[in-house]
Design goal:
The complex is a heterodimer of chains A (116) and B (109). Chain A has no helices and eleven strands. Chain A is mainly beta. In chain A, the strands form two sheets. In chain A, strands 2, 4, 5, 6, 9, 10 and 11 form a seven-stranded mixed sheet that branches. The model of chain A has no long low-confidence stretch (mean pLDDT 94). By secondary structure, chain B is mainly beta. Chain B has a single domain (4-58, 69-90, 98-108), classed as Immunoglobulin-like, CATH 2.60.40. Chain B has strands spanning 4-7, 10-14, 19-25, 33-38, 45-50, 56-59, 62-67, 72-77, 86-93, 97-99, 103-108. In chain B, strands 2, 4, 5, 9, 10 and 11 form a six-stranded mixed sheet that branches. The A-B interface holds A 1, 4, 41-45, 48, 58, 92, 102-110, 112 and B 2, 31-32, 34, 36, 41-46, 49, 89, 93, 95-97, 99-102.
Chain lengths: 116, 109
């Protein structure tokens, strides 16, 4: 499977600020996704990062709050904008196995965000 | 609401015992059922997965049992080891992955 890295691994931010999280994959992948995992909770899909077009957001998530870029087939960023303490979560990127459908997904190590 | 219901929330098993985690769903469009293992501070790792055309899949000490008519599937961890202590998530895929709430497994030495 692909090797996925995320930066930063963790951060502590002040409310009202924004943080951009990077996801880098060591091989080209068609599908990349961003998830949120609130403390002690399950994973929730935020959006699908589409290369060359706007991301596809799930219900409850909007582009103004979580802008996503996908400039190429190995890299994506997620920005958490105008943060509040409720945004404190682990943010995870995932990729679908190359050449497969989006079902078999592999996750990065996550970015642990704390908002004060 | 949660599309995949997972139980129990936590379980404790002795070393060498069997851990069993159950999941249930209603959406018949789901066609792929993976299990993920997550250690504290790490991202979830794909452990084993099954498609609805088979009733059982085994990989080492991990087995998925799938009951299509009952819309249920389960993970069995045989000969549980302390290194298996982690949180396990079941999931189901239609156009996206929907995750269960997670089960924290503790294996006592």
């Amino acid at each position: 499977s692909a090797v996925i890295s995320q930066k930063p691994s963790r951060d502590i931010c002040q409310r009202g600020t924004s943080l951009t999280i990077q996801c880098q994959v060591d091989s080209q992948v068609t599908m990349m996704f961003w998830y949120r995992q609130q403390p002690g909770q399950s994973l929730t899909l935020i959006a699908t990062a589409n290369q060359g077009s706007e991301a596809t957001y799930e219900s409850g998530f909007v582009i103004d709050k979580f802008p996503i870029s996908r400039p190429n087939l190995t890299f994506s960023t997620l920005t958490v904008s105008n943060m509040s303490p409720e945004d404190s979560s682990i943010y995870l990127c995932s990729v679908a196995g190359s050449g497969r459908a989006a079902d078999e997904q592999f996750f990065g190590p996550g970015t642990r965000l704390t908002v004060l | 609401q949660q599309q995949v219901k997972q139980s129990p929330q936590s379980l404790i098993v002795q070393k060498g015992g069997i851990s069993i985690i159950n999941c249930a769903y209603e959406n018949t469009a789901f066609d792929y059922f993976p299990w993920y293992q997550q250690f504290p501070g790490k991202g979830p790792a794909l452990l084993i997965a099954i498609r609805p055309d088979v009733s059982e899949k085994k990989e080492g000490r991990f087995t998925i049992s799938f009951n299509k008519s009952a819309k249920q599937f389960s993970l069995h961890i045989m000969d549980s080891q302390p290194g298996d202590s982690a949180t396990y998530f079941c999931a189901a895929f239609d156009y996206k992955l929907s995750f269960g709430a997670g089960t924290t497994v503790t294996v006592r030495a």
